[in-house]
Amino acid sequence: MAKISARTATWAKWAVVPAALLVSGVAVSQASYSAFSAKVESSTSNWTAGTVALDGGSTSGAGANASTAMFTATNLKPGSTGAKCITVTSSGTLASTVKLYGTTPNTTKALSSNIDLVITEGTGADSACTDFAVLTPAAPTYTGTLAAFGTDKTGFATGWGSWAPTGTATQTRTYKIAYTVKSDAPNGTQGGTASMGFTWEAQNS
User: Fold this and answer.
1) Do residues 110 and 189 make contact, with C-beta atoms less than 8 angstroms apart?
2) Residue 113: is its pLDDT beyond 80?
3) Please, is 201 exposed, middle or buried when counting C-beta atoms within 10 Å of its C-beta (0-12, 13-18, 19+)?
4) Helix, strand, or coil here: 148?
5) Residue 61 has pLDDT above 80, yes or no
6) Which residues pair with 7 in a beta bridge?
7) Domain ranges (residues) in the chain
8) Are 8 and 69 in contact (CB under 8 A)?
9) First and final CA of the chain: distance in angstroms?
10) Are the C-beta atoms of residues 52 and 165 closer than 8 Å to each other?
11) Tens of pLDDT, residues 154-205
């Protein structure tokens, strides 16, 4: 699966490693013109930071990578709907928490305020969500407008999601993102536009 980028990329913070090392040694010496001496030295100590890594799957049946826009919808009208699924893989060695948030939201004629989003965590490999299944037990579902997601979910600290990979094995989770244009969208939204990137970010626990 391709690396998430263009608003679906993920990043990691390094784990904090110990800053001090206690080394004990032995030295024997004698103050004379000739002296015997002996010392013990520890072997070189090494540290390797753990990793937090995410990889994003295909977002189209043609196998496009995650840099491809999840949605490219035109000629929308009240009641228009659609859904896409993306599978995210955690391959890091540290326990982490994964959050989803929006980046660079833009809209004209208030279209984003008239598009409802439903985001669900589950399983499945098909980007068209034909094999999507909710988790058991079910994880919380996000419901709100595209505008609200872009305003409220702006970074890891305010991001949405419940996934917490353990870091002990490669793990995957599929996110279903569904949209619906409000049935009562006002006439003034005609010709309006809306755009936003979706970003998954993992930070070590």
Assistant:
1) yes
2) yes
3) buried
4) helix
5) no
6) none
7) 54-184
8) no
9) 25
10) no
11) 999 999 999 999 999 899 999 999 999 999 999 898 888 898 888 898 898 7
Q: What is the DSSP string of 61-129?
A: TT---TTS-S----S--TT-EEEEEEEEEE--SS-EEEEEEEEEEEEETTGGGGEEEEEEEEE-S-TT-
Look-up of token digits 């998430």? 4
Sign of torsion over alpha carbons 131, 1, 135, 197 = negative
Q: Using CB atoms within 10 Å of the CB of residue 86, give its burial: 0 to 12 exposed, 13 to 18 middle, 19+ buried.
A: buried
CA separation for the pair 66, 87 (Å, rounded) = 10
Q: Look-up: residue for tokens 């000739």?
A: 34
Calculate Rg over the CA atoms of the chain.
25
